[in-house]
């Protein structure tokens, strides 16, 4: 795939798939895809369940969900191309046009927005000269508005290829995208030591581990405050199923469990 389709996407053309995306895979690439797909399919009782990871596998090779990638998934999973396209166009992690090497998602949902996410979006969008779902002409950064990065306790939050950059400012995010475009290694706030490329991360999402899952911290300090308070005060979580079983048994015996029975 060439990079000719990078750059500003027309607002109405974001689903346009270049004609070249339907060119057949080279024999060695196709053989390798089939080998990997067989490993993915073997994880599921029904092979159609492997569609989501297989779409990530296609992205790990092509950088987005190509026409040939859709044909490949349909062929391997005995689905129609319409069924595969229906799934590929439903989830935002699947890209239907050439994607940048780094997807930078700026959260502009309520909490991040009021903590500065809208300002970050405005400034970074202007800095890069692109809008939502558009890619810089060098093919490095695809910018996205995100509806919650699932890290609200670190608002405002930006993600680069789904690695967290917590407590961001317009300046720190502009520095982040500049470093990514310059090819520098950038270190997320949590997780692995550096942000991997979109294709590399797509392969991990397809289920092929890169060995980085245990690198860096998972939960940051803000996420652990509640746990620390609970520990200080001796609070414990109700033990759901076991407590219900106790209660049921006690009722059968006509006894109180001695626990809150509300
Ligand atoms: S609102 Fe921004 S991470 Fe949840």
UniProtKB/TrEMBL annotation:
<keyword id="KW-0001">2Fe-2S</keyword>
<dbReference type="InterPro" id="IPR002023">
    <property type="entry name" value="NuoE-like"/>
</dbReference>
<dbReference type="InterPro" id="IPR042128">
    <property type="entry name" value="NuoE_dom"/>
</dbReference>
<keyword id="KW-0408">Iron</keyword>
<comment type="similarity">
    <text>Belongs to the complex I 24 kDa subunit family.</text>
</comment>
<keyword id="KW-0411">Iron-sulfur</keyword>
<dbReference type="Pfam" id="PF01257">
    <property type="entry name" value="2Fe-2S_thioredx"/>
</dbReference>
<dbReference type="InterPro" id="IPR041921">
    <property type="entry name" value="NuoE_N"/>
</dbReference>
<feature type="region of interest" description="Disordered">
    <location>
        <begin position="235"/>
        <end position="262"/>
    </location>
</feature>
<feature type="compositionally biased region" description="Basic and acidic residues">
    <location>
        <begin position="244"/>
        <end position="262"/>
    </location>
</feature>
<dbReference type="GO" id="GO:0046872">
    <property type="term" value="F:metal ion binding"/>
</dbReference>
<protein>
    <submittedName>
        <fullName>NADH-quinone oxidoreductase subunit E</fullName>
    </submittedName>
</protein>
<keyword id="KW-0479">Metal-binding</keyword>
<dbReference type="GO" id="GO:0003954">
    <property type="term" value="F:NADH dehydrogenase activity"/>
</dbReference>
<dbReference type="GO" id="GO:0051537">
    <property type="term" value="F:2 iron, 2 sulfur cluster binding"/>
</dbReference>
<dbReference type="InterPro" id="IPR036249">
    <property type="entry name" value="Thioredoxin-like_sf"/>
</dbReference>
